[in-house]
Automatic annotation (TrEMBL):
Residues 203-222 are annotated as: Disordered. InterPro entries: SpoIIIAH (IPR024232), SpoIIIAH_sf (IPR038503). It comes from bioreactor metagenome. This is Stage III sporulation protein AH. Keywords: Membrane, Transmembrane, Transmembrane helix. Gene3D superfamilies: Stage III sporulation protein AH-like.
Length: 222
């Protein structure tokens, strides 16, 4: 009887070992396939580019509604004009002021870090030809220049008395969010001048958004 039990234990142990070995082999194969796609496939470089050859932007706002961050577009301003009905016009952002700027800048930083990492991997990949590597290097420089321009614009706007500012440069637009519920025409013009000078973009590419807390948009019950 002991011999039978011992045999059963041995068979069970072997079955467990085979199952574990199969799982590890499956996991290792999947990991290897991911690495091959990321690093060793020259065609994966194309995923980083837009149709015009410019660097593809990695979205950092896939879900703006999370953590109380929501964009309320199409609201009307006090003068009766529809916000965000034109590129460069002010828009209202409905969110939590205390967390918006920290989260927005963190998302932007993570997005740029991901872009830089992928481009660096392409540059260091022996399977990528020199022409593609040079394009990656050029786009890597472009990202760094965007970061510097964003930082310069934010610092200059804050020096004018605005407590918090967020600037995001993409291929065709520059988004600016200012920690103030309303902006006068003078303030809009001041911010527009700073952004166009620091980033080199045209006015119709700039979208300025005064930050409006979600609490202030909720009607007060009487």
């Amino acid at each position: 009887m002991f011999a039978i039990k011992r045999n059963q234990i041995v068979v069970t142990a072997l079955a467990v070992m085979i199952a574990v070995a199969g799982y590890l082999n499956f996991t290792e194969r999947n990991t290897s396939e991911v690495k091959n796609v990321d690093l060793n496939d020259p065609t994966s470089y194309e995923a980083l580019l837009n149709d015009d050859g410019s660097i593809a932007t990695i979205a950092d706002d896939e879900d703006d509604s999370k953590d109380g961050m929501e964009f309320a577009l199409g609201d009307t301003t006090e003068d009766g004009q529809t916000a965000y009905d034109d590129t460069g016009a002010a828009v209202y952002v409905s969110t939590t002021p205390d967390t918006y700027f920290v989260q927005a800048k963190l998302d932007r930083e993570q997005s740029r870090a991901s872009q830089k990492q992928m481009l660096t991997e392409m540059i260091n990949n022996e399977n990528i030809d020199q022409a593609k590597k040079q394009e990656c290097a050029d786009n890597l420089l472009k990202i760094q220049q965007r970061i510097e321009k964003e930082t310069a614009a934010e610092a200059m706007i804050e020096s004018k008395g605005f407590s918090e500012v967020y600037v995001r440069i993409d291929d065709n637009t520059v988004d600016v969010v200012v920690n103030k519920s309303e902006l006068s025409e003078t303030e809009l013009a001041q911010i527009m001048d700073i952004v166009t000078r620091k980033t080199g973009v045209k006015e119709n590419q700039v979208r300025i958004s005064p930050l409006k807390s979600s609490e202030s948009t909720t009607p007060t019950k009487k």
